[in-house]
Description:
- The chain has 379 residues and is an all-alpha fold.
- The protein is built from 13 helices and two strands; from the N terminus they run H-H-H-H-H-H-H-H-H-E-E-H-H-H-H.
- It has one domain: Formate dehydrogenase/DMSO reductase domain (Formate dehydrogenase/DMSO reductase fold).
- A hairpin with a 2-residue loop joins strand 1 and strand 2 (277-278).
- The chain is globular and about 65 Å long.
Amino acid sequence: MNETRTLYWTWLVLLGIAIIAGLITTFKLLTEGHVLFNANDILLWTLPLGTYIYLALMSSGLAILSAIPLVFGNKKYEPIAKRLVFLSITTLLGAFVAIGLELGSVFHMIYIMISPNLTSPIWWMGAIYSAELIILIVKFWRMHVGDWYSGISKTLGVISSICAILAPLMIGAVFGITESRVTFFGPLMSIYCLLIALLSGFASFIFYSMIYHYVTGDGVPDKEAYLYNDLARGFLYVTGIVVLFTILKATIEEWSTYPEFLSYHMFEHAFGVWQIFHTEVMLGLFLPFILIAVPTVRRSSAGKLVTSALLLAGTLAMHMEILLAGQSRPVGPKAEQFPEFARYAPSIWEWLVFVFAIAIMLLLSTLGERYLKLEAIPE
């Protein structure tokens, strides 16, 4: 018990240090602006935006998973339903921290919402995620007071699930309608974002659960083992779908004769490339798929932990790879005064934005576990 208490307070101190660093970063950004980021006239979207996409899609995936018991009525998943909803909230709050700092001020987020442009996917993305956050908070409150399945609660669950599906599609549309960037353009981007949302939802919850049960006890209780094995099986299926989609996407890119795709292959990819596949795809998608396809690995806590960790690292790297590669080639007048490809590495302040967003998410999750009875089920 003393060891657990010591670990808990050590964890809070580490999170506190990260949040203090984030607050210092926030002050610097509000007073000095985007000069702290390694962005330029070519690469406008960098690590803070990648962090937002990463966490926002993860939040959507968690919300979609919570629909299994709360919308579709599968009682078997009730023991994890409240935790799924709460983690979806904390993850989305972390995403809003990242996008707020990327925009330079949280007031810019407010201005976007009060000056709607109904033809803009960016506006719709922000509006849907804002609505989803409010609905999830109300839904969690209803669950916390014991109202899981009243008419109001079921309606909230359905609406939040619809938002969780629409929001990733809208993130994909932000990139997919960018005609000047052929490597972004097209309907595949929206489908990809929805699939990655579901994949990262599975990965984040399995990873979180394995760590939680290890820290608070001797591992996953026997009575809950079947539940996580079921989740791991669903994780395998979703990973397989993403693998097939990624192979299709890479094949289209490889055989395309568009000049932009030919130039895209010349780009010095951030994490390296082998044949037509990027390193992060092989290590952060293909490898965990192979591992989790092995039944003994899939059923073990260590196997779940390793594969989900690889997927979480891989999806972040894949978001950044797509984000950077799609912007790296100057177009229009900019092409006359810049190199053929722009180079980028995150500044220390960009990394601190990433750490701040993750720390906010983890602190809220930690406090929720301690005070909000996230393991509760309806009476």
